[in-house]
Amino acid sequence: MHWAFDYIGQPWVRHEHDCWQFFRRVQEERFGRVLPAIPMETYRRGACQALLECHEERQQWAPVEKPQEGDAVLLSHARHPSHVGLWVDIDGGGVLHCVGGSGVVFQSVKSLKATGWAHLEFYRHV
Predict the structure, then answer these.
(1) What radius of gyration do the chain's Cα atoms show?
(2) Most CB atoms closer than 10 Å: which of 18, 57, 72, 107?
(3) How far apart are CA 86 and CA 18, in angstroms?
(4) Which of 101, 55, 65, 108 is nearest to 85 (CA)?
């Protein structure tokens, strides 16, 4: 069984287990990357957008066309990213992410687009 299944169903908790906190936890536990804590108001989309676009940690990630296991996936409903997850190679690939109201879920690209995540950007740690 793929390691990602260990996380599915874990709850979303504001300021403790939101998209960024989940992403950094998995990066450390599964890929040995220690990422900074970024205080973000996950319930304010604009605050998330600003942090995901401007924080110095983003400089540690280079854009890629084809994602690989563990790559960052920035997601947006419109033009600017407001959510982060990570790419996992399950059933042709998809995104493992922590969503308010649902907790940790895995979604295929098709499922993400159907639920309003119109734009996905892929990044690899450099």
Answers:
(1) 13
(2) 72
(3) 13
(4) 108
Domain that holds residue 16: 3-125
Model pTM above 0.85: yes
Residues 104 and 9 sit within 8 Å (Cβ to Cβ): yes
Q: Which residues contact 113 (CB under 8 A, 6 or more apart)?
A: none
Q: Flag whether pLDDT at 9 surpasses 80.
A: yes
Q: Kindly indicate the confidence band of residue 116, based on its pLDDT and cuts at 50, 70 and 90.
A: very high
Each residue of 35-50: b (16+ CB within 10 Å) or e?
Answer: beebebebeeeeebbe
CATH number reported for the structural domain that contains residue 17 in this entry: 3.90.1720.10
Helix (H, G, I), strand (E, B) or coil at 88: strand
Q: Measuring CA to CA, which residue among 63, 3, 57 is closest to residue 33?
A: 57
Q: Domain tally for the chain? A: 1
Give CA–CA dist 48/64, Å, rounded. Answer: 22
Q: Could you tell me which residues are beta bridge partners of residue 96?
A: 86, 106
pLDDT computed for residue 31 by the predictor: 96
